[in-house]
Amino acid sequence: MTYQMENAWETTDQKENARGMTYQMENAWETTDQKENARGMTYLRENAWGTTDRRENARGTVDQKENVRGTTDQR
């Protein structure tokens, strides 16, 4: 498992792994935690005023959820 934590005000972190998928993380005043398990699924969690939970599985589908201040559910 890969764990990355980042504390910043408006920091953007973009990564690309061996499978060619691109992950972009941006947080405000809290910590972004990115986890990848053995099945290759990536979980990106952002704790701030609007919590973002982004999931991308092996088929390449992205499930992005954002709640609290501005509720956005993109699938």
Q: Overview of this structure, please?
A:
By secondary structure, this protein is mainly beta. It has a domain at 1-6 and 32-75. The protein has strands at residues 4-7, 11-16, 22-27, 31-36, 42-46, 52-56, 62-66, 72-74. The mean pLDDT is 54.
* Biggest β-sheet description: 6 strands, antiparallel
* SSE succession: EEEEEEEE
Measured distance between first and last alpha carbons = 25 Å
Strand content: over 45%
Number of helices: 0
Classify the secondary structure makeup into a structural class: mainly beta
What is the alpha-carbon Rg in Å?
12 Å
Low-confidence stretches: none
What characteristic shape results from the CA principal axes? globular
Instruction: Give the % helix.
Output: under 10%
> What oligomerization state is this entry in?
single chain
Task: Name the strands of the widest sheet in spatial order.
Answer: 1-4-5-6-7-8
On the 0-100 scale, what is the average pLDDT?
54
Number of strands: 8
Summary keywords:
two-stranded antiparallel ribbon; single chain; 0% helix; mainly beta
Please specify the SSE layout and strand pairing:
Layout: E1 4-7, E2 11-16, E3 22-27, E4 31-36, E5 42-46, E6 52-56, E7 62-66, E8 72-74
Write a brief caption for the model.
Helices cover 0% and strands 53% of the residues. The protein is mainly β and 75 residues long.
